[in-house]
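Encode chain A's predicted structure.
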Amino acid sequence: MKRHLALVSILIAALASPARAGDVVVFAAASLKGALDQVALDYQAKTGDVVRISYGGSNQLAKQILDGAPADIFISAAVNWMDEVEKAGLLAEGSRKDLLGNTLVLVSAEPLAPVQIDKGFDLAGLLGEGKLAMAMVDSVPAGQYGKAALQSLGLWDSVSRAVVQADNVRAALAFVSRGEAALGVVYGSDAVADPSVHLIGTFPDSSHPPIVYPAARLKAASDSADQDFFTALSSPEARAIFTKAGFEPLE
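Encoded structure for chain A:
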């Protein structure tokens, strides 16, 4: 326990201080927080290298990279935002890979009976006068996947006015966790990460584009530690952590 707390303190201190030569700077989708923190802590304990992780919506992170923000590794929650960074010529050649997959789920603030999410699902009736929390539906991957699923199932028009949008999927999850929204559309891994919310249903894979987390090194990554940590993301140890957290390792 003391060792774990010490490692957490080291990582927090590393994120709070200016970057140094040899540090690994990672820009990662907000939904990865928790699992990726643990991967970084384990790697740091083994190597002594410092891993700094900046979490946010993939759209925000991609735009920061395009604007010149210093980063060594980018892990997006959607292919399109990685595509934008690649089109700008900012990825290290041959480094891009599909790292993880995920599911899209419906969570509730109160314990409810499991539901079957399909075209006959009365989401508006279940929601009642409550709010439906989602990440930004026009820009953040989780929100885009969620809107696509609701539209595919013919449910969007009946609930769109009840949607409250958040900057990223973890912020949407927090709305449900705090009871500020009755229901939320988030990733399966988010439901695992927060025991205070209740998983009540899973959207069919056919209702939305495949949820893929591409990862790549950036051309700015020149330190051997950058390559070592990038490789460690696909190690058996990392895969086990991601699996336990509700992700699907793709390699």
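The first helix runs from residue 2 to 16.
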